[in-house]
User: What shape does this take?
Amino acid sequence: MLSAVTDYLRYGAGCLLGVVFAVAAVSKLRSRRAFTEFVASLRPMGLAPAARLPLVAGAVAVAEVAVTVLLAVSLGGPLPENPASTVAALGFAGAVALLAVLTGGVAVALRRGVSAPCRCFGVSAAPLGPIHLARNGILLVVAAVGLISVLASPLGSGEAAGLAIAVPAGLVLGALIVAFDDLWFLLAPPARRQ
Assistant: This one.
């Protein structure tokens, strides 16, 4: 039973994070202009010298791609001698590390009073705010739960019915996280949109 539950957590968390990091990476790497805009959005945050911002932005995008690939491979079919556990652990550990860095960057920017637009998923007019810190914190918890689920139990197969719920739930929640800024703008009272 524990093995099935950890499988459902792993699949749900992996799908959620896979969607989030895939969209984030594509939004930054889809064109030279998109990447340049992402680099420009980092400038007001003062997290690195201006000359190093393209390198920082590139490292973020490459890390997002790497996490996406590791999670996608680990969620695929059975692999010889079940290295999917190792791949999944690497994917979730990478997600934890990347989210810790990104959350720290948002926290530093907020402490400095920076109100630059959040370019996590492409073009957005929403300035960084405490809600972005909360979103990243939630994603960090999801990544940690995914990592713990992989470490707690070797990968099993899980029951089809459970996986039929965990996978779509992860995909839908990932899409909601990607649309977070737009949803927050539509649903939050005007005074709380920061």
Notes: The chain has one domain: 2-192. The radius of gyration is 17 Å. The chain is about 70% helix and 0% strand.
